[in-house]
Amino acid sequence: MKVLVIQGANMEFLGRRQPELYGTTTTAELDAAMHEEALKYGLTLDIRYTNLEGEAIGWIYEAERGGTEGLLMNPAGFLYAGYALRDCIKAVSMPYVEVHMTNIDKRGMHSVLAEVADALITGVRVQSYMLGLAAMHHLLTNRG
Q: 123, exposed or middle or buried, with CB in 10 Å at 0-12, 13-18, 19+?
């Protein structure tokens, strides 16, 4: 089961940007941990980072056409005004799991993408991704 993982705006600086909020785990460390966790569930990950909403939209449609079965995304900076991204997610058939390293509600943020998510996991830093992969596996194996 192939899953597209998109890391949204500003996530490429993970480990360097606001470590008091996001910790010190780097992108390379997070990617390695996600690949290792995905093996437990029989998932193959295609992990991509972007600061451009349109690029993320293109990847999602490409993944849909290519038979990718799920989307796990931390929209990061796209959560505020990612209406085009939200409409894209609504158009595809794959389940969408949204993750955030921090509790965005506690920080006074609202994700415009959350309303189209099949699952939403927030507030447990890197573990948000591991729980997101478990949720994706559940969704993919319990379809119908």
A: middle
Q: Is the model's pLDDT at 144 over the cut of 70?
A: no
The answer to whether the CB of 118 falls within 8 A of the CB of 139 is: yes
Q: pTM for this structure?
A: 0.95
Q: Which residue has the tokens 């990718």?
A: 68
Question: How far is 10 from 52, CA to CA, in rounded Å?
Answer: 10
Q: Which residues are catalytic?
A: 22, 100
The neighbouring-strand residues paired with 112 are none
CA dihedral defined by 11, 16, 17, 18, rounded to 10 degrees? Answer: 130
Dihedral (C-alpha) 13, 3, 92, 123: value to the nearest 10 degrees?
-50
Q: Identify the burial level of 89 via C-beta atoms within 10 angstroms of its C-beta, where 0-12 means exposed, 13-18 middle and 19 or more buried.
A: buried
User: Are the C-beta atoms of residues 82 and 75 closer than 8 Å to each other?
Assistant: yes
DSSP class of residue 12 equals: G
pLDDT digit string, tens, across residues 75-131: 999 999 999 999 999 999 999 999 999 998 888 889 999 999 999 999 999 999 999
- 10 Å Cβ neighbour count for 93? 6
The helix/strand/coil state of 46 is: strand
